[in-house]
Specification:
Elements: H1 17-26, H2 28-37, H3 42-63, H4 65-74, H5 77-84, H6 88-133, H7 139-149, H8 151-166, H9 192-200, H10 203-219, H11 226-250
Helix pairs in contact: 1-2, 2-7, 2-10, 3-6, 3-8, 4-6, 6-7, 7-10, 8-10, 9-11, 10-11
Length: 252
């Protein structure tokens, strides 16, 4: 009697970069498993940059960089002290120069800052998880996990653009558009270290941290559990927050 043949299981069809962007929100486990098998990162990085550039353009047109600079000066005692020491003509000239530079710095900062930040975070997590798991995860895999895990920031930025159009521009805090953290409850006179601390406790940031834990677990599920991945990521994030809060307090 002939033995029945068992059909070989077909490998899952590769997911496109566009499909992965949506999959991060609806099927993160499956999506990051696909990324671990065939890393990609260019498209999600471009999406973050393009949406962020749209936010910068909207701030410039709806709020105006002069108003942004004036708000920053008004909330910084050190900046107010420097401005008060200047003659009115020099003060006005400096404000105009800063307003013109702010937009340029914003555009360049988004492009360079996004690329550098994702590369640095990917390199840091690569070292940490290769040490934890004893594996040899390639850099492209780590960069792919980081790039796709940042997709919640795209949602936050798009919401911020909508808010810029529906709210009075004079009432908008461009540094906390969505108000998805307790820092939005603070007054303009709150200490800078407190603002830095509370704005770090952001819902979208927590979402990103969870996605990163899912992603790095998918790179080596036998050696990296979700709990171990999340614990390592949270520790690194806490160190970053402490450094950021310390700098905000020192240079306020």
């Amino acid at each position: 009697m002939a033995t029945p043949t068992v059909p070989a299981q077909q490998a899952p069809a590769p997911v496109s970069s566009v499909g992965r962007i949506f999959g991060v929100f609806f099927e993160p486990k499956t999506t990051f498993e696909s990324i671990a098998q065939r890393p990609t990162w260019v498209l999600p990085m471009l999406v973050v940059i393009i949406v962020s550039l749209g936010s910068i353009a909207t701030i410039g047109s709806r709020v105006g960089w002069r108003q942004v600079i004036e708000h920053q000066v008004a909330t910084s005692p050190r900046a107010q002290e420097r401005m008060q020491q200047m003659p009115p003509e020099q003060r006005e000239s400096m404000m105009e120069k800063q307003a013109k530079l702010a937009g340029v710095i914003g555009y360049v900062g988004v492009i360079v800052g996004t690329v550098v930040a994702e590369l640095v975070v990917a390199a840091l997590f690569l070292a940490v998880f290769n040490i934890i798991s004893g594996s040899k995860m390639p850099f492209s895999t780590s960069l792919g996990v980081v790039a796709y895990s940042w997709m919640p920031y795209v949602i936050a930025t798009l919401l911020g653009i909508v808010i810029l159009f529906i709210k009075d521009p004079s009432t908008v805090d461009v540094q906390n558009l969505v108000a998805s953290n307790p820092g939005a409850l603070l007054s303009d006179t709150a200490p800078k270290w407190m603002v830095s601390l509370l704005t770090s406790l952001d819902l979208f940031t927590f979402w990103v941290l969870i996605l990163q834990a899912i992603g790095y677990r998918a790179t080596n599920p036998k050696k990296i559990s979700f709990g171990k991945a999340l614990g390592a990521i949270v520790v690194i994030w806490l160190i970053f927050v402490l450094v950021k809060v310390g700098l905000a307090g020192a240079f306020a």
